[in-house]
Each structure stands twice: as C-alpha cells, then as structure tokens.
Request: fold
Amino acid sequence: MSRILVTGSADGLGRAAADALLAAGHDVVVHARNEVRAAALDDLSGRGAQLVVGDFADRDAVRKVADELNASRPLDAVIHNAGVWSGPAVMPVNVVAPYLLTALLRGPRRLVYLSSNSHLGGRPSLDGVDWRGESAGSYADSKLFVTTLAAVVARLRPGVLSNAVDPGWVPTRMGGPSAPDDLALGHQTQEWLASSDAPEALITGGYWYHGRRLEPHRAVHDTAFQDRLVRVLAEETGTAL
Reply:
C-alpha cells in the first residue's frame, strides 16, 4: 500500500485516479481548491481518503498544503493533476504549484506530472512569462514547462521516479463533453506510474500517453533549458528545487 497525493481531485481525471487508487487499497490524499469543491469529495473521504484544501493559484496556499502534508505520514507518490485551461491562473496552477510542491514535500519517491500533447506547440522561451498570473497564460507553454520540470527532476534526483503523462483529450469538465479520447485510459497511466511495482513502471524521465512512452518536445530534454527553467522558478518563488 502506498500513500499517494492526487492534486485537483474534486472531479475529472483527478477524481477518477483517486477513486481507483482507493479501490486498489492505497492510502490516498485528495485535494480541492476550496471548501465548496471539497464537498464533492465527501464520499472519498468516507472511504478513508485524507483531504487537503488550498487554491493553487495562491503560493501561500500551496505552501500551507505542503506544511500540512509534511506534518503527517510521508507520501510515497504525488500525481500533479491540478490544472486549468485558460485565464490568469494558468502559470500559477499548472507550473508554479507543482514546482513548489516538488521543492517542499518531503518523502515522495514517485512524481507524476500531467502534461498534454498541447505541449508540442509550446514555446521554449522564459522571457516575459507572467508566473504570478496577472494576465492570461499560455496553456501550451505551461504544459511544455511542466513536462520539462518532470524531466529535470528525473535528472537531478536520481532516487526519484519522475514522469510526465499526456492523458489525452478526454470528456471532463475541462475537456468538454465532445472530447474524443477514452476517460478510463486518461487516468490509468498515472495511477500505474504512481503505484505499480512492474519493472516497466520503475523508470524515470519518461513522457507517456495511454501506457506508451513517446518522444516529447525536443526542449524537454535540453539540459540548458531545464536548468534555466528551475533557476527562474527558484528566483521567482524564493524556493530552490
């Protein structure tokens, strides 16, 4: 049994992953943006899931969640699922929050970051990025950055299994009802990477889609770009990886 945090688990892929991990006997920590959203997790809490609440657009809230989790039993894995599609919260939620949690949480030996094939259209430039969310951010850029974060963590932390997963365009609240991909397949790969002892799951630095390892944007494995990204995020947040 592993202790696994699934961020953004009030609905969609995060909820599906948390539900499946609970059913498999794991000790799951679920996360909601606020108390209203947390009410949707009452049934999972009733089955034993621990709940943490915090708006990941707010850095102080991310730090508070990290402090709360560090004060309890150590995590074995984190699925960085929380994300937004558009608006000012894109960079804070999709990039800064997972960066801060990666830097602050003690213990996890497996990290899974939710990417998207949209990252292939992202720009590998950090000039002028609004990390604080004072203006609308680029979803494609944010997914390129978080996919790169997964790769740089794999390089800098050899004892940690760090991977990125493209769940596909699935019919969630974010994806919309007409999304063409399979919802079940959309959450299985991240669960497998977070919990399986199969040799195929015990690798690091991968970019995955529906159980298959694919090649990401070429910037993802550019170590100079990786180093710039973590340096900029460390300066921006005052927290080193």
